[in-house]
User: Which sequence fits this backbone?
């Protein structure tokens, strides 16, 4: 059907030929990234799988990392995400970084989730739930050393340490902090100050007789710019794990060798030539100035292709960059493929990823929206099928699959 040779362009098409739009998730790259990061960190890695694994698919990604590398830890934002992991058979340690809301404490206990405590008021509730169940819950206290977000203020931290003494069913398992701007070289002193404050809090807890097992500070930007000071004995990594933190890392250090895991594709569903002066799409925001070959692809803001990409973004077709023309609508987007000689129905348009030598990175795609790559992949909605590619020779849309034998440990 297609006349440009997509095989030669390296359009891997891990999808079923029956899919018209899909995100391909390259598990071999995920594995390489994980292994490189684990070596670079020199300490255990908490694989951040919150927000549907940054759009890569919560359960397939976590199951893969548990089965293939026996991931040290998983990090999620919400209790619901932690419960979903346990129900899917994840048995490795899970930390809920956003803690729980009142009423969810029984789920924390029942599903053996480690949790933070964004306020001292959560302590008695969790203690009671754990005591009722006859279980012990691992607690990681986040200290606010400068981000001003979920962490405990110095007063709250002191209060929680004091009140923990009366909570025999809560175990202080970790002390953590989160960097506000480890990606900004001009804020390096601020980050070093965060590290110092965290170290002080760790000393404070130890002086009070606590022996937290995990000390963790670094996110991707922290790992990139602040090793070894920020290594602690655990690092929490999302962006670099998925190979997409390029725009969230300090430019003062060379980029790491991690590779993007996700690419986003759709097939040309419709193709027509219209005369000059033809308005296209809602609001008639684009009017052709030449005879124009218009390709319509089934991706829109209902899939997470943001409407702000209208008349701004680009895609790759037959290895060439072509512009999005007219408004991105909920379900479809138009491309100007006039300059693509052999374009045909069914050709693949790549919005994030490579065709041959040409690439649109998630960072470039996000820059069009004034955003960062993390938001671009995380915004992909449930309607986009995720196709998992573990090795060049096999694939299974939507499902889990085994890694190549050589990838097993
Ligand atoms: C999301 C998150 C991380 C991971 O950040 P990346 O920049 O994606 O590596 C680490 N720690 C906390 C508290 C987070 O919320």
Assistant:
């Amino acid at each position: 059907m297609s006349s440009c040779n997509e095989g030669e362009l390296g359009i891997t098409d891990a999808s079923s030929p029956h899919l018209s739009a899909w995100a391909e998730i390259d598990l071999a790259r995920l594995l390489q990234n994980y292994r490189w990061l684990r070596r670079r960190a020199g300490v255990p890695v908490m694989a951040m799988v919150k927000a549907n694994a940054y759009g890569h698919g919560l359960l397939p990604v976590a199951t893969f990392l548990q089965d293939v590398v026996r991931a040290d830890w998983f990090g999620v934002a919400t209790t619901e995400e932690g419960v979903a992991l346990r129900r899917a058979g994840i048995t490795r340690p899970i930390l809920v970084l956003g803690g729980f809301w009142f009423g969810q404490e029984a789920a924390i206990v029942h599903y053996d989730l480690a949790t933070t405590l964004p306020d001292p008021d959560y302590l008695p509730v969790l203690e009671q739930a754990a005591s009722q169940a006859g279980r012990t819950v691992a607690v990681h206290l986040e200290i606010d050393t400068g981000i001003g977000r979920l962490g405990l203020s110095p007063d709250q931290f002191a209060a929680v340490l004091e009140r923990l003494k009366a909570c025999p069913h809560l175990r202080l398992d970790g002390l953590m902090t989160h960097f506000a701007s480890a990606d900004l070289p001009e804020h390096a002193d601020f980050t070093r100050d965060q590290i110092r404050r965290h170290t002080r809090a760790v000393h404070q807890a130890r002086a009070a007789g606590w022996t937290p097992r995990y000390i963790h500070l670094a996110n991707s930007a922290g790992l990139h710019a602040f090793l070894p000071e920020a290594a602690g004995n655990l690092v929490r990594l999302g962006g670099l794990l998925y190979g997409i933190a390029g725009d969230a890392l300090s430019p003062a250090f060379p980029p790491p060798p991690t590779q993007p895991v996700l690419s986003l594709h759709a097939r040309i569903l419709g193709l027509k030539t219209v005369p000059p002066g033809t308005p296209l799409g809602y609001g008639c925001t684009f009017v052709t100035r030449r005879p124009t070959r218009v390709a319509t692809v089934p991706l829109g803001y209902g899939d997470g292709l943001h409407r702000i990409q209208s008349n701004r973004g680009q895609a790759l077709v037959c290895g060439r960059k072509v512009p999005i023309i007219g408004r991105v609508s909920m379900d479809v987007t138009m491309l100007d493929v006039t300059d693509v000689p052999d374009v045909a129905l069914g050709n693949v348009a790549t919005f994030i990823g490579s065709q041959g030598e040409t690439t649109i990175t998630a960072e470039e795609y996000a820059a069009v929206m004034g955003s960062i790559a993390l938001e671009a992949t995380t915004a992909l909605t449930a309607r986009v099928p995720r196709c998992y590619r573990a090795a060049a020779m096999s694939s299974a849309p939507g499902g889990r699959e085994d890694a190549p034998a050589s990838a097993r440990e």
About this structure: The longest helix spans residues 188-207. Residues 391-409 have pLDDT under 50 and may be disordered. The pocket of pyridoxal-5'-phosphate is lined by residues 48, 50, 97, 178, 219-221, 236-239, 245, 248 (CB under 6 Å).
